[in-house]
Amino acid sequence: MRTALVTGASRGIGRSIAMELGRSGYQVAVNGLHEERIDSVVEAIRQAGGAAEGYCANVADPSAVTAMVEAVAARYGAIDVLIHNAGNLHDRKCEQMTDQEWKSVLDVHLSGAFYCIQRILPFMTSHGGDILLMTSTAGLMGSVGQVNYSAAKAGMLGMVWTLAAELRSNQIRINAVAPAALTDMTRPVIEYLKEKYARRNEPLPAFWQVGESDDVARFVGLLLEQRDPDLTGEVFGVNGSQVTLWQKPLPVLSINGAEAFFTAWKHREEK
Question: In this structure, what are the phi and psi dihedrals at residue 133, rounded to the nearest 5 degrees?
């Protein structure tokens, strides 16, 4: 039986993924910050016939991550899958953003991913495994008022592309999923935008018309079933039943000489 550690699994997308993996026969290590919510997910997985244990730890705290990973490994012997889903939001325009709002988001999303990956690798490298990082279109395209969140999610992409090459020889795949789903974290933003566009008598933009957490969980379950060793270093967008494959940034203009470059740039904008 394979073991999966899911961070931020006490609600939303993380909870749906934990439930999906429990139904698929995984031993699920459920991580979160609140004991009651963790216990609720663990009980739901067990009631559905699955196996699960709860681990309360802040992924932004490296010592807490170390203790959690060691406890999971001691309980199950090995860790086959890491899904780093833990996240938080502190939205504000850059000029008004506080240092703590910047640091808090980077610590949970980006540093948390690093701490979890690094601590889990010793329990994964002997037999291979899968790592999934939950990124966002904010990291791919930017998002006004979310410079901290966008930077953290973009940083995850660099981790995926680097570690895909670094861990290939250990039969460890790493991919990223950019989900669009209605969750406790996204609902306030979407409800605000619905009201905003309704006042204008305009439809909600397609970008904000999102699917459900269970759609993301089903995709994750299917992704983990694929045994192709080359299925690594990829970024997938998931919105409802719509799945999008993103590619690495590619050079679009390369010219010898700065003057020649900006001449070409000017003509490029005129086209």
Answer: -110, 130
Cβ(5)–Cβ(29) under 8 Å? yes
Put the strands of the sheet holding 242-246 in their side by side order.
Answer: 51-56, 27-32, 3-7, 81-84, 129-134, 172-180, 235-239, 242-246
- pLDDT on residue 204: 61
Q: Which pLDDT does position 190 carry in this prediction?
A: 63
∠ at Cα 18 (12, 19), nearest 5°? 90
- In the residue annotation, 149 being an active-site residue is answered as yes
- The full set of domain ranges for the chain reads 3-270
pLDDT higher than threshold 90 for residue 185: no
Q: Which of 26, 55, 115, 149 is labelled catalytic?
A: 149
Four-residue CA torsion sign, 107, 110, 114, 117: positive
Burial of 27 (0-12, 13-18, 19+ CB in 10 A): buried
Cβ count near 237 (within 10 Å): 19
| CA–CA dist 23, 20 (Å, integer) | 5
**Contacts by residues 223-231 (CB-CB < 8 Å, ≥ 24 positions apart):** 223/132, 223/175, 223/177, 224/21, 224/81, 224/130, 224/132, 229/168, 229/171, 229/173, 231/173, 231/175
3-270 domain in CATH 3.40.50.720? yes
Determine the average pLDDT of the residues in 35-62. Answer: 98
Whole-prediction pTM: 0.90
